[in-house]
Please model this.
Amino acid sequence: MNATVVGSQLGDEGKGGVVDLFSEDADVVVRYQGGNNAGHTVVRRGEEYKLRLIPSGVIRGKTGVLGNGCVLDLETLFDEIETLRARGLDPDVRVSARAHIVLPYHRVLDRAEEASKTDGGLEVGTTGNGIGPAYEDKAGRRGIRVGELLDDAVLRDRLEYSVPKKRRLARDVFGIDTGVEFDVDHLFETFRGFGDRLESEEMVVDASSLLAEMDRDGANVLFESAQGTHIDVDHGNYPFVTSSNPTAGGAITGTGVDPSAVADGRIIGVVKAYLSRVGSGPMPTELSEDAASAVRERVGGFGTVTGRPRRIGWLDVPMLRHAARVNGFTGIVLNHVDALGGFEELKVCEAYELDGETLTGIPSTTAEWARCTPEYRTFETWADRDWSEIRNDGYDALPDAARTYVEYVSAELGTPVYAVGIGPGRDETIVRQHPFGSAED
Ligand code: IMP
Model:
């Protein structure tokens, strides 16, 4: 049985912890899109691991694969591998030869384009890691793939074609001075070196063939998404999106598996019990800055990668309905339920009002979504408490009002609840129904 873990909102739903938990029964964990814009936190035996590229299941000793749909900052990848080794782990990471790489000029151009948008208020609030420009080059057929780092002649040809154009773009369009990030010889030496290292550590694979072979041998595959449905380049609120497909379909195109490997498996929607967002774009249920900073103080609302304060809002069910449909969730994990404990009021957006009409889903244009007014339902609150006391007692030990909240979300989406998160640790997730089969509650 395979499973795919997808964020149902705007990223930061706590997918890393969910992957870590369910990867116990997986043989291989595969990231299928994004790059080091992701920030997945895994807590194991009280130790915190922050990962940006390496699939979260690697912390459990599983094989981690970075699929062709990813864009790879190789310096970050090697730093993460070294950091895990220094902490006593032996990460087994394979990289698709078809994955594209992020080059230093992508980072420079990402930041330059964002800076150029600030006057018009058009900035996306990217993580500045060069993700968009790397995917642009992929679609524009001028990107460089991992497999090409292993071949002197091909790598040099690619750089000689692209770099002068990038230099002109930086200078003439964005008016910035260019340095070694735009120097063919420097890039060739650096990236040829990365290629040698990938080759000597036997990390480069044909991921599609590897996964097909593992499937034939009966392996369980866990597909790990980064970011979330509403920042998907197709299904999110464009243009305030990332440049890849975090939705479940991305697991097929981003790895090269037979579509049934994803579609016939479990598709786990990770839902944060409230809403948060680190970048720009609409957010109909957003709290005022005063209310948001009070929440941030209690629940630590700062982006893992950027350290920026997260914008905070009430749970938005129309967003979740869209996510459930686009991804075909077979179940959800409702995370951060502990964070809502002690709230004086608790609201959920059930529908929107737009131009006198009630909408139960989100409009397909971002401008219309920005004009939606939430229609709220109020829920009974529950007190904050020492959540660690109830983690071993299972779902029934949750406060009644918290269970009502969880069951409401499940009923609205028509999906079972696989698990409820009441803290960051692996043992702080109450599993109700294990997606790989065994019921624990
Ligand atoms: P980019 O992916 O760096 O190009 O950023 C595009 C948008 O996606 C920005 O609004 C980012 O804040 C957002 N974003 C990218 N990665 C993540 C993530 O892992 N969690 C939450 N938001 C993200």
